[in-house]
């Protein structure tokens, strides 16, 4: 409670694996004020743009409020009886392996624990897999091969203490912004060097000393070369290597690899190796450019090899560091949410581990082999081997590779249950039964971030309608399936205690994951639990692993692996000449079900795009703003071309975020082949092949509206604005009557209209009014529409007699696209201030305009604007 009697609650941000602490304070209008928690060790008060905008995303308008069976609202009893009956019947008729759960690294640990216990212990199948298969599986496999368990050796403090931070396949500036700010702070303080290893130039390169734009998929060759240099330069740690097997074989394989496949010059590679070898305190941060690859586990081990060879692991400021994507990716790995794990880092294929867990759970049945991994699981759904499927907290119809096939598989499945917070997702639309889940801020539990810190999420808002927490829905189904005692949970604290007790058994087997010190936590202590880093036993809390040369293989030794470069599976060919890289943008989270509710987050990049090199664009006769058709052997997309030398010639990059709800032709996973790493089963999301052609558009349109809109054309993308929606549109067939079409689009059959229509030139401009207030406006042209979008989005709902001109009155400047989402500062405003006020630094821009002073996520882009102003010839 503060002085005014308003209570504040500490919780954790529901987005990325940095796991920032937040302080939540009800705003009195059903929403929340959200600020960074100065006492949380992950962020010390900082938040990025997404965390800062959490308050904007709590809108209840689109929430799923009641269970539905075949689209009809029903009560919980009907819905859950049906789920329990269908699963029980299917198991009775076709065996336990005919059903599956597909879950998420965004579930809380308590949710995840119950799901895993129900499937592995009581249904008796290991067919539970998670979207972490698309995310962290290669790291899990790499860690297990090298260390004997899935252990993250270091902690965030290592980023503060390092002299060199190497970002491999990580766009830390946009995907783990608070960690990137931490690295930049260390750089300001101690001169930390930063290297980025990424085929693409990203925002993370802006603060970097070196960017190695290697060929897609060639990381193993690069780190093999580093291993050779470590050997030849005498930088290996002989004493440490006494505890590690495989150095000679790894070195021999490394010698056999050819570093030229990286496409980097000898000088670049030599400079990188020198830098790496010169700095004992080196942290190699890696993420999806490493994991999402058909050689993902090998890439992980190639990095681990170099750290093991030099003994630079588990020491302050030194170690390999897998940064996790989702808020509870780590928790999911710990509870055993992957089809090839058991629980608490125990192995499903180890009989004594299995027996111990079975006895602890008093489980009737335990699978003896691994279950189906995500890609195989959806193939089994597609060919009818899986007959009942429960999808929880994830949107596979968008995010799985070969997404159109996955969508068809789900819709063809005999019985699909989807638990979500909204019915408006590509996956939820396919469900037979939809279950309303309580969302972040409405439910309680724990999550584990990238550096093994367990933090509480706490409920501060009532769940709307009939929504219930995921653990509660799962446990209820468990009870209805006949497992009363095992799923008789009343509160998440009970689940957590049981889980902590189980981890003690893992500790007994000598596994790393042991939080048994928390097994007797009473309810008030659980409520108050402050962030703690595991392991948490009577003997030990937190700290680092492996500096002492003690590993978790049965012989206690670490392992280096012999590795050879393998190119991505899909090969470029004349028909598919481009390499399609995919990933994230700064202000959207995955399939956008939450972040797209925020107008300020939607302003940064409002439509799906394809980055293409100027040389390739010229060969395809592309102009800036053209739409392109992108085709792969799996599927098609239409995206906005952004011509940029950030990507290499022959490579293109597209974001993963757009969906059937926001831009149906932008579902990029429709193009990605379902190719996986043979070791980890993780899909190769970053290296499909594709063809690119200019879309033969008959017309292009731009619309703003205070209401909703119902586009029906080849390309559309809509985004929230403070006053409603904005949309980009394009069609491949001419429209005869633009007024009729616009009235249909906006659902305004009668509204008063102003219009300028020039059919001969293909131009139409229409503005609809209600007593002088603008309701909606549409601008159509035969080429990409040139209107001042950032001005137009402010007009709906206001008196705007001149809207149809598409431009502000002469005395009102156009702010340009929003760069700083926290303070809604546009590019033009910043450029003007740089010029007229002579601003020379990001700090000066902040002092003048506020931009970049809150979350700091846009600081790399501000730096780039400054650099561009300083050297105009460098601008594209
Ligand atoms: N804003 C935002 N932040 C997020 C998320 C989000 O949706 N939005 N999602 C969270 C989640 S779940 C995850 S997993 C993380 C992901 O975080 P990151 O892994 O940092 O993000 P990505 O953009 O997927 O990919 C990182 C980079 O890998 C590069 N890359 C592609 N191929 C290769 C290659 O062969 N070698 C190398 N070295 N690099 C390559 C890409 O060009 C890209 O810049 O982000 C988390 N944070
Ligand atoms: N091409 C390509 N594809 C990729 C990637 C890539 O880089 N490139 N990255 C992959 C990676 S790393 C990841 S992690 C995945 C992410 O992909 P997904 O997991 O499919 O994406 P999300 O949008 O996070 O889906 C979360 C869903 O849970 C719902 N939800 C929110 N809160 C709750 C809740 O409390 N309970 C329940 N039951 N539901 C809730 C949301 O509305 C949403 O529908 O995408 C993968 N796919
Ligand atoms: S870095 Fe941003 S998205 Fe990630 S946990 Fe922190 S505030 Fe949330
Ligand atoms: Mo992820």
- Provide mean pLDDT, rounded: 95
**For the CA atoms, what is the radius of gyration?**
27 Å
For this structure, the quaternary state is: single chain
CATH topology name of the largest domain: Rossmann fold
What would CATH call the architecture of the largest domain? 3-Layer(aba) Sandwich
Q: How many E strands?
A: 34
Which structural class matches the secondary elements?
alpha/beta
Instruction: Tell me roughly what share of residues is in helical segments.
Output: 25-40%
Shape descriptor:
globular
Main features:
single chain, 876 residues, alpha/beta, Phosphorylase Kinase, domain 1, Rossmann fold, Dimethylsulfoxide Reductase, domain 2, 28 helices, disordered C terminus, binds ligand MGD, binds iron/sulfur cluster, oxidoreductase activity
Description:
Residues 6-62 form the 4Fe-4S Mo/W bis-MGD-type domain. It holds the Pfam family Fer2_BFD. Its cofactor is [4Fe-4S] cluster; Mo-bis(molybdopterin guanine dinucleotide). This is Assimilatory nitrate reductase (NADH) alpha subunit apoprotein. Keywords: 4Fe-4S, Iron, Iron-sulfur, Metal-binding, Molybdenum, Nitrate assimilation, Oxidoreductase. With 876 residues, the protein is α/β, with parallel strands linked by helices. The protein has six domains: 9-57, Phosphorylase Kinase, domain 1 (2-Layer Sandwich), CATH 3.30.200.210; 68-134 and 330-491, Rossmann fold (3-Layer(aba) Sandwich); 137-322, Dimethylsulfoxide Reductase, domain 2 (3-Layer(aba) Sandwich); 578-694, Beta Barrel (Barwin-like endoglucanases), CATH 2.40.40; 699-805, no CATH class; 818-875, Arc Repressor Mutant, subunit A (Orthogonal Bundle), CATH 1.10.10. The chain contains 28 helices and 34 strands. The strands form eight sheets. It has a seven-stranded mixed sheet with strand order 5-4-16-15-14-6-7, with helices on both faces. Helix 3 runs parallel beside helix 19 (470-480), helix 8 (219-232) packs parallel to helix 13 and helix 16 crosses helix 18. The longest helix has 19 residues, at 76-94. The two termini are 53 Å apart. Residues 872-876 have low confidence and may be disordered. Bound molecules: ligand MGD (2 copies), iron/sulfur cluster and molybdenum atom. One ligand MGD binds at residues 16, 135, 168-171, 174-175, 197-200, 202, 216-217, 219, 287-289, 293, 325-326, 581, 583-584, 586, 588-590, 686.
